[in-house]
Amino acid sequence: MKDIKKDPFEEYIKNLPPTRKELGQAWQAAIGLQDVDGLKPSEYLYETAKKNIDGEISVDEAGDLINSYYESKDGRSEVETRTEEADKVSARIAKILSEKAFTFSPTQYLSIHRELFLGIYSHAGKIRDYNITKKEWVLDGDTVSYGGATELRETLDYDFSRERDFRYNGLTMDEVIHHLAVFISRLWQIHVFEEGNTRTTAVFLIKYLRMLGFDAENYLFAEHSWYFRNALVRANYNNIKNGIYETTEFLEMFLRNLLLNEKHELHNREMHVSGRFLLGHDDSINDPINDPIKLDGRELKIIELLREETGLTRKEMAARLDCSDSTIKRCLQSMVEKGVLKRIGSNKKGEWIILEKK
């Protein structure tokens, strides 16, 4: 297994005194949730977060500093734009998680999306008006069947009304965990929003769990945000021909760790529908985005490009990502060293292979 360096921010959070731990975990969850969309915050965001956690500035002032930081930047590249999104949304998630106000309603759900993505997405807080599919690594390239665009508001209202009328009294904790897993997976599957669906659902879930009286440890979303998303995918996928059925078992393990402080090991490889990643015992990397090896924003974009077209040249990648050929060369070399990519064939006629296992 490769030696993966620890995130210094993670070490900083672990050493916080109890009086600042909750705010630190809010920032940690906010930053970790950016992983589900392949986004990486900047060093400036980390330093700003520390100032807030240390009491030098308020969470509102932290958000203002992030906004001002990007107002002074012109002509940003695609990668820089994605970093801006990661920074701004991280600050907004930390703000929402540090506040006590919450109402269980579809309006609140839509409001969270609007607050997170206002000025970033033109559709912030709006229900999508077209149908979508998404290729999922955990489904070996297949997609979940998401809610139909013409029925999204009705479906959202229905799910909320059922949950609002549900009574938890008399249930065992196992039954509570199962019910919560079903509710949140169905809410996610509706996929009300064009983008930002998982981040919005995660923030909403944390707030709802608090309303129910749970002391949810936010850090689990930081460490296992991709596991959380993949568990939602598996809870909503059937392929009866191949003997694959929707299951909340993975999501329930996540929730048991989150709410009951249990210690289930959470590995993305165990959810892959093919089962081929269960043969070995090397946890270092199975999917270059979903598992422990960390890639920066540009490297993640390169992976996305290569998933669509393995024969892309460095020049073509540079043009699509608006950067130099030498930058692409450094990124490719870095990913080769991390065991994420392998080149086969000549420089002109070869192609890149994304390594699912070492």
UniProtKB/TrEMBL annotation:
Domain (Fido): residue spans on this chain: 104-253
Keyword Hydrolase attached: no
Known EC number: 2.7.7.108
SUPFAM superfamilies attached to this UniProt entry: Fic-like, Winged helix' DNA-binding domain
InterPro entries the UniProt entry points to: Fido (IPR003812), Fido-like_dom_sf (IPR036597), VbhA-like (IPR033788), WH-like_DNA-bd_sf (IPR036388), WH_DNA-bd_sf (IPR036390)
GO biological process: regulation of cell division
MF GO annotations: AMPylase activity; ATP binding; DNA binding
Top-level taxon of origin: Bacteria
Protein name: protein adenylyltransferase
Native source organism of the sequence: [Clostridium] aminophilum
Organism placement in taxonomy: Bacteria, Bacillati, Bacillota, Clostridia, Lachnospirales
